[in-house]
Design brief:
GO terms for molecular function: ubiquitin binding; ubiquitin-protein transferase activity; zinc ion binding. The chain has 18 helices and 37 strands. The protein has 794 residues and is α+β, with helices and mostly antiparallel strands. Among the domains are: 123 residues, RRM (RNA recognition motif) domain (Alpha-Beta Plaits, 2-Layer Sandwich); 81 residues; 65 residues, no CATH class; 67 residues, no CATH class. The strands form twelve sheets. Strands 8, 13, 14, 15, 16, 17 and 18 form a seven-stranded antiparallel beta sheet that branches. The radius of gyration is 34 Å and the shape is globular.
Length: 794
C-alpha cells in the first residue's frame, strides 16, 4: 500500500460513498511512494496489504491446507518464494493503521475501499475490517496497510478532520498473523445451536398410565422420530382440552413430528386420549440459518473457511469456522457465545474457541512410535483433547491435536514432539558419531539389520552428526550398545576431495564406483548437493590418497560402471533410493538425501534446485513440493535457516538486538547521526526491542542511552577488547571477507564460510576463490592440511 501524494491536494471528500453496497473495486490505482526499504526483488505492484501474507487457502482436510509462506521470525515478517528464498522482510514499524468511527449502517469493506480510492489511496479490500457495535446503529472501519506513513497522511486529510462527519484516528498496527507448524493455532471456532423443536402435551384419563408413559419417554424407551425427548409431569389440570386429565409434557420434539410420530412407540392400551402440538420454536430452514450465523461471525473478522452445519441426527446443528486471525476468533467467542440466535431470540448460540496443533512426520517415524503415542491417548482424552492421525500421503503422516484449553494443547504438542524426535544417542555427554555413519556402507547395513531385528528406527541426522533412536526403550537401549561398539571400532577421519567440472565428470563416468571398490563402500560419501560438489573419504590418509589417485588419474575407472544407474537410484548418493521422494521433474531421492539437498542449497546462499541428471536438471523446487516431501520440523528448520542465511547477506539492513540470546531483529537506518525521522519513513532512530525492552540506536546498532554514537564508540573500546579475548579463548575467528564469526569443530584446516562462500586457510586466514588451491597452499606453507584423527570412543 502506498500514498498518492496528489490525494492530499484534492477537494475534501464527504463520507457519502460509505453508505450502501458499493460494487467491488476493479483496478486499484497505482501505488506511489512505496517503502523503498523492502527487498527490491519484489515488484512494487505485487506488495499487498495486511491479509496478503496471512490468508490460508484451504483445500479440504487439515492435512491438505495450503500455506501462505509467511513466517514471523525474530520479530520480522518473512515472505518466502519457490526454492525457499526470502523474497521480502517486513517489520512492525512498516505497518500503520487508522480507525474511521461513527460510520452509518450498512457500511461495507468495498465501500470503504471506494472512498479510499477517491482520496488517492490504493488499498486492497482485505486491508479493511468493519466492526459493528451491539446496537447496530453505527460501525467503524479499521484499515491496516504496509506503509509506515499511511496513517499520518490519511488522518491529515481535511475530510478526516471534519467535526460533522466520521473521523479517522491512528491506531496500533500489529503484525499480520502467519502460519507455522510450530505454533498452536487458535483460529477455529465450533458453533452449535438447537434445532427447531415443538412441545407436545399428552392427556391421559389415568394418573398411573400417564406416569408409566412419562417414565418410558424419560428413559429413552419411547422416542419421537427416533430421537429422545425430555418429559415433564404428569400433572393434573394442565391440559388445554380437559382440565381433569393427567398431562405429560414432551420438550425438544423434532420440528417435523406429527401426532402419529409422538404416539408411535406407545402401546394401544396406554395410548393418550388427546395429543396437542405447539408450533415450531423458529421457522428458518438450515441453509438460511447457516448464512445468518456466518454473517454474524463476519462481524468479528474475515473468515478463511466456513463449514455450515449439514442435516444431521441429534438435537443440535453443528458448524465450523476458521478465522484469518487468532484475535478475531477470540472476539467471536466474546461477542456471540451464549447470545440469542439471529433468527430465534429464545435460543442461544454456542461458540467455542478451538486450539489446534499439527505435526507432519515421515510414516516410518510414526510406525516406530505409534505405541508410545497410544500410551498418551487416554490422558489426552481425559483432558478433552481430540487426537487424530490422518492416513499416510507421499510417505508422510499428519498428526493433529485439538482442544478448548490452549495450554493443554500446547503441552500435548510438546509431548508429541518429544516422542517423534526420538532420543539422541549419547555417551559421556556427547553425541555418538563417527564418519562412517554417514556413508551407505557396512555401518549403515548394520543399522538396517538392527532396525529389522529390534523393530526400531535409527535416524541418521547427517547435518547435526547425530543418531536418533525411536521405538520401545528396552530395544533402543540394546541398539545403542551395539552402535557404541560399532563406533569404537571406527578410527577414520574425514577427508574432502572437491570436484571441478572435469573431476565430477570423471566421478560420474565411474570414478566414484572405482573409489568405493578400492577402499570400501562404507568409506566413501558423495556430496553432490554441495557447492562445489565433493567426495568425502571417511577413512585413513592412505584411503584418501588412493581416492585422489583414482579421481585425478583415472586409475580403475574403466573397469567401473557409469553412475547413470537405474531410474530408482537416488540423484544424490547414486544408490537405490531409501523411502523414495519423486519430484515433478521425474527425479528420485532418498528421503534423507532430499532433506540434505534442501539444506545444502539454502546454506550455499542459493535457492533449492533439483540435482537430477548429475546436477544438470537445475529445476527450482517449489514450496508446495518442499511442503509435500519434508516433515513439519524439517520444513520450519529449512525456512528459518533460509532467513538466517539471508540476514548474513543483508547485514547493512537487518540487525539482531545486541542483548545476548535475545534474537529479535530490526531494520538498520544506515545513516550517520541522529534524526527524528529516519530517511523520511516516519520511523524514529531508536528500536525498542519488544522482547527485552532495550533501546537500540538503529544508526550505529548499539544501545547507548543518553550518549551520542561517537561517545558510545569511545566508551565501548574496552568491551571490544573483551569480545576479542573471548573469541580467542573459544577458537572463534572472523571471516576475512564478510566478517561473520566462524568456529571450527573438526576436519582439516580448509574452511568454507557459510555466509559468503569464500574458501579459507584456518592457519593464516588467507582466502581463495576455489577449494583445491587451499590444499596446495596448506601443504606448501604449513606442512600439511591439519587433519585431526579421531581414535574412536573409549
Amino acid at each position: 500500500m502506498a500514498v498518492n501524494a496528489a490525494g492530499a491536494s484534492r477537494q475534501p471528500q464527504t463520507l457519502g460513498p460509505l453508505v450502501g453496497g458499493v460494487g467491488g473495486l476493479g483496478k486499484v490505482a497505482p501505488a506511489i511512494g512505496t517503502n523503498a526499504t523492502h527487498d527490491e526483488r519484489v515488484p512494487r505492484n505485487d506488495r499487498r496489504g495486511m491479509t496478503a501474507c496471512s490468508q490460508v487457502q484451504n483445500a479440504g482436510d487439515v492435512s491438505q491446507d495450503v500455506e501462505s509462506w509467511c513466517r514471523e521470525l525474530n520479530g520480522a515478517l518473512v515472505n518466502f518464494g519457490d526454492g525457499a528464498v526470502v523474497t521480502k522482510v517486513s517489520f512492525r514499524s512498516d505497518f500503520s493503521a487508522v480507525r474511521i468511527s461513527h460510520l452509518p449502517q450498512p457500511t461495507t469493506a468495498s465501500s470503504v475501499v471506494h472512498l479510499l480510492v477517491s482520496l488517492g489511496f490504493a488499498v486492497p479490500e482485505g486491508c479493511v475490517r468493519i466492526s459493528a457495535p451491539a446496537d447496530n446503529t453505527y460501525c467503524s472501519a479499521d484499515i491496516r496497510v504496509e506503509d509506515s506513513l499511511f496513517a499520518k497522511h490519511f488522518c491529515s486529510l481535511p475530510a478526516m478532520k471534519r467535526h460533522d462527519a466520521s473521523r479517522a484516528v491512528p491506531i496500533n498496527a500489529p503484525m499480520p498473523q502467519t502460519t507455522n507448524y510450530r505454533r498452536v493455532d487458535s483460529k477455529k471456532v465450533y458453533c452449535s445451536w438447537h434445532k427447531p423443536t415443538k412441545t407436545a402435551w399428552l392427556n391421559f384419563g389415568n394418573g398411573d398410565i400417564a406416569a408409566k408413559v412419562g417414565s418410558k419417554f424419560s428413559a429413552g424407551i419411547y422416542k419421537v422420530l427416533n430421537q429422545r425427548v425430555q418429559c415433564e409431569g404428569p400433572t393434573r389440570g394442565a391440559g388445554n382440552w380437559n382440565q381433569l386429565a393427567w398431562t405429560i409434557r414432551l420438550l425438544d420434539v423434532p420440528k417435523l413430528a406429527k401426532k402419529e410420530h409422538v404416539t408411535r412407540d406407545i402401546p394401544a392400551g396406554l395410548a393418550p386420549c388427546h395429543v396437542e402440538l405447539s408450533t415450531a420454536s423458529y421457522d428458518v430452514d438450515l441453509p438460511m440459518a447457516n448464512t445468518l450465523i456466518e454473517s454474524s461471525l463476519l462481524q468479528a473478522g474475515p473468515l478463511d473457511r466456513w463449514e455450515g452445519s449439514p442435516e444431521m441426527t441429534g438435537k443440535r446443528f453443528k458448524a465450523k469456522a476458521r478465522f484469518l486471525d487468532d484475535a478475531d476468533a477470540r472476539q467471536a467467542v466474546k461477542l456471540f457465545h451464549n447470545k440469542p440466535l439471529p433468527f430465534n431470540n429464545h435460543g442461544k448460540l454456542t461458540v467455542q474457541l478451538v486450539h489446534s496443533a499439527r505435526l507432519k512426520i515421515p510414516t516410518r517415524v510414526y510406525d516406530a512410535v505409534e505405541q508410545e503415542i497410544a500410551d498418551h491417548k487416554q490422558a489426552w482424552a481425559s483432558q478433552h483433547l481430540l487426537y487424530t492421525a490422518y492416513p499416510p500421503t507421499q510417505g508422510l503422516r499428519v498428526l493433529k491435536i485439538e482442544g478448548e484449553i490452549g495450554k493443554d494443547v500446547a503441552s500435548a504438542k510438546a509431548t508429541l514432539e518429544n516422542i517423534i524426535g526420538g532420543e539422541v544417542m549419547m555417551k559421556d555427554g556427547k553425541a555418538v558419531w563417527v564418519p562412517s555413519f554417514a556413508a551407505n556402507g557396512r555401518a549403515y547395513q548394520i543399522m538396517k539389520q538392527l532396525e529389522r531385528e529390534l523393530g526400531i528406527l535409527i535416524v541418521r541426522d547427517k547435518r547435526r552428526s547425530q543418531l536418533r533412536l525411536l521405538g520401545p526403550r528396552p530395544r533402543c537401549d540394546e541398539a545403542q550398545s551395539a552402535l557404541i561398539e560399532l563406533a569404537k571400532a571406527d578410527s577414520s577421519s574425514i577427508f574432502v576431495i572437491e570436484l571441478d567440472t572435469q573431476q565430477f565428470s570423471q566421478a560420474f563416468k565411474g570414478g566414484y564406483r572405482a573409489v568405493a571398490a578400492a577402499i570400501g563402500d562404507d568409506k566413501v560419501i558423495l556430496d553432490i548437493a554441495s557447492s562445489p560438489r565433493r567426495i568425502l573419504v571417511a577413512g585413513s590418509e592412505a584411503d584418501f590418497n588412493v581416492a585422489q589417485k583414482i579421481l585425478h588419474g583415472g586409475e580403475g575407472v574403466s573397469r567401473a560402471k557409469s553412475e547413470t544407474g537405474s531410474i530408482s537410484d537416488c540423484a544424490i548418493c547414486w544408490t537405490e533410493a531409501e523411502n523414495p521422494v519423486h519430484t515433478p521433474c521425474k527425479h528420485v531421492y532418498c528421503a534423507g538425501c532430499f532433506e540434505d539437498l534442501c539444506f545444502a542449497g539454502i546454506n550455499s546462499g542459493a535457492c533449492i534446485r533439483c540435482q537430477g541428471d548429475a546436477g544438470r536438471c537445475g529445476e527450482v523446487l517449489r514450496l508446495t513440493e518442499l511442503q509435500a516431501y519434508l516433515s513439519s520440523a524439517a520444513l520450519e528448520d529449512l525456512l528459518e535457516t533460509a532467513f538466517r542465511i539471508h540476514v548474513t547477506r543483508h547485514l547493512n539492513d537487518l540487525r539482531y538486538c545486541p542483548t545476548p540470546d535475545c534474537g529479535q531483529m530490526y531494520r538498520a537506518a544506515n545513516l550517520s547521526g541522529h534524526s527524528d525521522d529516519v530517511a523520511g519513513t516516519g520511523q524514529r532512530p531508536l528500536f525498542i526491542c519488544p522482547a527485552c525492552l532495550v533501546a537500540v540506536c538503529r544508526v550505529c546498532n548499539v544501545s547507548h542511552d543518553g550518549l551520542t554514537c561517537a561517545e558510545q564508540r569511545d566508551s565501548a573500546s574496552g568491551g571490544y577488547e573483551a569480545l576479542r579475548a573471548a573469541k580467542e579463548k573459544l577458537g572463534i575467528k572472523d571471516c576475512p571477507k564478510c566478517g561473520i564469526m566462524i568456529e571450527k569443530t573438526f576436519g582439516c584446516n580448509h574452511m568454507t564460510c557459510s555466509a559468503c562462500g569464500v574458501h579459507i586457510c584456518w592457519v593464516c586466514m588467507k582466502t581463495f576463490q576455489k577449494g583445491n588451491p587451499v590444499y596446495d597452499h596448506m601443504n606448501r606453507e604449513h606442512g600439511g592440511i591439519g587433519v585431526q584423527y579421531f581414535p574412536g570412543l573409549d
